[in-house]
Design goal:
globular, IQ motif containing with AAA domain 1, mainly alpha, ATPase_AAA_core, 6-stranded mixed sheet, ATP binding, Rossmann fold, N-DRC_Component
């Protein structure tokens, strides 16, 4: 009942939202930019809430047809979220937005702003088992690398000292062991049993046992009293009966889902084959009779045989729209005239600059290419509709007066939630009809050309629209590994450590708190720094959702490159591994360290990038991680980068990115600690989206200390002042805080926690050895980001807003002087 109630509530909210968007007036270009952004933010949060509820419903459904329909709606909602995000970025001129006032208006909490990662990304992924097995084998066996690690003098001396001290310790331990064994043997020889009565022996045993039990009971009571008084935190209880029952139910639901999906696929194939065998021949004959009848009607009405509709215009499907032959001929002539006009416009605009794409127009006008999908999926699930049938099917089944009937999957009342065979048969009948129609169209085109030759004595106009202009001969990119199998290419990349297994981390483990004073600071003309929570949301939007859903890329092609910039230790590497784990993507690692040793020479970069992009395209989804991305675009050459031709790598990277298709689920993620060392223009030309990760603020640092100490098994007590630790670690990154905690909480210190509680003073010495992010470095990042395209756009927009305010103040002064 709860699942059904949530499902109905989500569909009711979606229906209201779709009606509001469809009936809304077109956006006024003279409207205030901030007001438009506020409206887009409200839509964004409402769609996000519906998406979260439907994702939860999707995981509980066991009926395959229902899951299929909900998946269509979820794909449309994800695409709509990305569209609204693009519009908000254009309006706000920033990737990070302040939602605190919008959340207050909608009575939501910051948790409602978190973007859930759909769990079906991993369950529906077509896993490459051979690649996973090779990666696990590589990680387990740990094959010896051919290249040796170069050690400094201090590291070599330290290594020798450790080995020598270990040898001496083993000798001392062996001597001590022999002494103990000798003493034990001597005691055995000289030991004599004491003569005790049974009563006295029982008393001694009881004394030892009662003392042990009383001490154990006293410790337990003391701990209960301390927990009751709040002096120590209570122990985290294990899973209760309700949680265990929930886990059992979810496991059973997964098994039922797998069984129903297998049954659905089997029934799907059998029904399609039966429809093709039983009704395929009749469909073919009926379609041929209908098309021949149309030939004769057109000739009687116009005096000549018509031109057969092209494949791009639907073929014979455009004939069965209940239109007269004259109307069909007029539509075909209009389409030809439009094509001629388009050709003339293209010829006339060759020398002009390129106009904005349809995607940019959608961003400005606020239109959507996913709203129709969401509305169509919602209509299939919530309301009856009359299925569109061709004349052939209507003639075949004698359905001249077909009644209105329900095909609502949600209203299909079956407690067992088995397959709706009637609905499935109708879907497969349409698929078979489309396949038969393609075959019939080819036959009827040939028959129409013969009729024109015999009756009208004219040749049929052949539409060779795609062959009118000879394409320029372009050099095809040569496949350097055409004679090798995919498995051999993967083995080569794994052995050279370019294809690696991602670390087991999730994006939810990227700790960061929401910024509650963003709008207040902006009203005071202070640009607030983004929080780590905003960074996690951006990575989910730009990386996880496009990699997990193929339907998004087909209609809304996104950028294929993403740059994560920030100081050392802010979590760039963790985000890359988290993206791979959330989507099940393969991880390709490119860095100057492994590039210098594996493929040297001029042709090394060409071969390597060809190999990586080819395998990544075959093993979609894939993430290509370029570490230290700024070294490819360095302003000056360094000694460490002279061995590998980084300029050659830059050229090959640009060429390889052009080979990616918009629908490919391949994402290039670059990470950099010093982006200001690279040339800005070519750097931003490669990486279209740039996310600047800042140092954590006070609330994020407090959450980091709390979560990381809990992860190490520390019980927080009054002796540990976390607020002071969060205050004194201003400027330190999450990586610094994690290193400090692990350096203090050694195994021997963890054993003493019950007797000696942890205090904040113990972390001060380790913190003094760390170098925080100084103001000069933070300022360098901000200055560099202002040089990026989005930073320049924001700066120009701020100057324009100031000019408008200044002009407004001048007008007010003039009006006041006139009144005086």
């Amino acid at each position: 009942m709860t699942s059904r109630r949530n499902r109905m509530a989500a569909h009711k909210a979606l229906q209201d939202l779709i009606q509001d968007e469809v009936s809304a007036d077109p956006p006024d270009p003279h409207r205030d930019r901030l007001q438009v952004f506020h409206d887009r933010a409200i839509l964004y949060l409402k769609y996000l809430q519906i998406f979260r509820n439907l994702e939860e419903v999707f995981e509980q459904l066991v009926q395959p047809q229902r899951k299929k329909g909900v998946r269509v709606i979820l794909d449309g909602l994800m695409g709509r979220l990305l569209e609204l995000k693009a519009q908000m970025v254009d309006l706000d001129r920033s990737e990070f937005h302040c939602f605190d006032e919008v959340l207050l208006d909608l009575k939501m909490t910051p948790k409602d702003l978190q973007i859930p990662v759909p769990r079906f990304f991993l369950t529906e992924r077509n896993k490459q088992m051979t690649i996973d097995v090779m990666l696990e084998k590589r990680q387990r066996v740990g094959t010896v690398s051919l290249r040796c690690q170069v050690l400094s003098l201090e590291e070599a001396v330290h290594l020798l000292q450790v080995s020598e001290r270990a040898r001496q310790g083993r000798i001392r331990a062996q001597v001590t062991k022999e002494l103990k064994l000798s003493e034990r043997g001597f005691r055995r020889l000289t030991w004599r049993a004491t003569d005790l009565e049974p009563h006295q022996a029982a008393i001694r045993i009881q004394k030892v046992w009662r003392g042990f039990m009383q001490r154990k009971k006293t410790d337990r009571e003391r701990r209960q009293e301390m927990e009751f008084l709040g002096m120590i935190p209570a122990e985290i209880p294990g899973p209760g009966p309700a949680q265990l029952q929930d886990q059992l139910v979810s496991t059973g639901v997964k098994l039922i889902q797998d069984q129903n999906e297998e049954e659905y696929q089997r029934v799907q194939l059998s029904i399609k084959q039966s429809v093709l065998n039983v009704e395929g021949t009749d469909m073919k004959e009926t379609l041929q009779d209908q098309i021949r009848q149309w030939f004769l009607e057109c000739r009687d009405a116009t005096g000549r045989f018509p031109d057969f509709p092209h494949v791009d215009h639907g073929g014979s499907a455009s004939l069965f729209t209940q239109k007269s032959p004259e109307q069909v001929l007029v539509e075909l002539s209009v389409q030809e005239d439009q094509e001629k006009k388009k050709k003339k416009e293209k010829i006339g605009n060759r020398k002009q600059k390129k106009k904005k794409t349809t995607q940019d127009e959608r961003r400005v006008n606020g239109s959507s290419c996913f709203l129709t999908d969401v509305a169509e999926g919602h209509r299939l699930y919530k309301g009856p509709f009359k299925p569109v049938r061709s004349f052939a099917c209507c003639f075949l089944f004698n359905m001249k007066h077909q009644k209105r009937r329900e095909t609502d999957v949600l209203r299909f009342r079956d407690n067992r939630q088995v397959i709706n065979l009637q609905l499935l048969r109708e879907e497969k009948r349409r698929e078979v009809e489309q396949e038969v129609r393609v075959q019939v169209d080819e036959l009827m085109r040939a028959e129409l050309s013969n009729l024109k030759l015999v009756v009208d004595r004219t040749k049929m106009k052949t539409r060779t629209r795609n062959k009118e202009k000879k394409k320029k001969k372009t050099k095809k990119k040569k496949d350097l590994t055409a004679d090798r199998s995919l498995q051999s290419l993967c083995e080569e990349l794994i052995l050279n450590e370019f294809l690696i297994k991602p670390q087991t981390v999730r994006l939810s483990e990227f700790i960061g708190e929401f910024s509650y004073l963003g709008s207040t600071l902006r009203q005071a003309n202070n640009d607030p720094a983004p929080s780590l929570s905003d960074v996690r949301q951006l990575v989910t939007l730009y990386a996880v959702l496009p990699l997990g859903s193929q339907a998004i890329l087909k209609k809304f092609p996104l950028v294929k490159t993403l740059l994560l910039a920030g100081p050392s230790g802010v979590g760039k590497t963790m985000l890359v591994h988290g993206v791979c784990n959330e989507t099940g993507a393969h991880l390709f690692h490119l860095s100057p360290k492994n590039l210098n040793h594996s493929y040297p020479g001029k042709r090394g970069a060409t071969y390597l990038l060809h190999l990586v992009f080819k395998v990544a395209g075959e093993l979609q989804p894939s993430v290509i991680w370029i570490e230290d991305a700024e070294k490819t675009f360095c302003k000056k050459k360094t000694k460490s980068n002279q061995q590998f031709d980084l300029q050659r790598l830059k050229k090959e990277l640009l060429r390889s990115l052009k080979t990616l298709k918009p629908e490919d689920r391949v994402l290039v993620i670059g990470t950099t600690q010093r982006p200001f060392d690279a040339k800005v223009k070519p750097f931003c030309k490669v990486y279209k989206k740039i996310i600047l990760i800042p140092k954590p603020d006070y609330s994020s640092r407090l959450a980091l200390w709390t979560e990381l100490l809990h992860a190490e098994g520390v019980e927080l007590g009054p002796s540990l002042d976390l607020s002071s630790l969060a205050k004194i670690t201003d400027g330190f990154t999450p990586g610094h805080i994690l290193k400090v905690i692990r350096s203090v909480l050694r195994p021997h210190r963890l054993k003493k926690l019950r007797l000696q509680p942890l205090m904040g003073v113990e972390f001060v010495q380790s913190l003094s050895r760390m170098e925080p992010v100084y103001k000069e470095e933070e300022k360098a990042f901000k200055v560099w980001f202002r040089k990026t395209p989005l930073g320049r756009k924001r700066l120009l927009g701020a100057n324009a807003d100031e000019d408008k305010r200044g002009n407004g103040k001048k007008k007010q002064k003039r009006q006041t002087t006139k009144t005086r």
